[in-house]
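Project outcomes to date are best conveyed with an example. Our students and postdoctoral researchers have been running inverse folding experiments weekly, and each run begins with a structure described purely in C-alpha cells. The record below, which covers 75 residues, was selected by the lab manager from last quarter's runs and is presented without edits.
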C-alpha cells in the first residue's frame, strides 16, 4: 500500500503525495510510525535480561508476576 500522506518536518504541514513542501521547499517525510515488530521487543528484553544481575532479575520477575497473584481473591 502506498502512503499518500506526507508531512513537512520544518513547517509541520501535511500534504498529499507532495515530495517537497510548497511553502518552505523542504523535503516531506512519511508521518506514520514504523511497523510493529515483536522481534524488536523480544531482542530488547533479552538484552536487558542478559545484562542484569540476579537481584535485578528477581525484582523484575516479582513485579511481572505480582499482578497475577495479587488479582486472585480467595473466597
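After processing, the design step wrote out the following sequence:
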Amino acid at each position: 500500500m502506498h502512503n499518500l500522506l506526507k508531512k513537512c518536518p520544518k513547517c509541520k504541514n501535511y500534504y498529499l503525495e507532495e515530495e517537497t513542501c510548497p511553502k518552505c521547499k523542504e523535503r516531506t517525510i512519511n508521518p506514520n510510525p514504523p511497523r510493529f515488530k515483536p522481534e524488536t521487543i523480544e531482542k530488547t528484553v533479552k538484552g536487558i535480561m542478559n545484562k542484569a544481575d540476579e537481584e535485578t532479575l528477581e525484582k523484575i520477575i516479582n513485579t511481572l508476576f505480582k499482578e497475577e497473584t495479587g488479582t486472585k481473591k480467595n473466597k
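The beta strands are 5-7, 14-16. The chain has a mean pLDDT of 80. The training component of this project remains on track.
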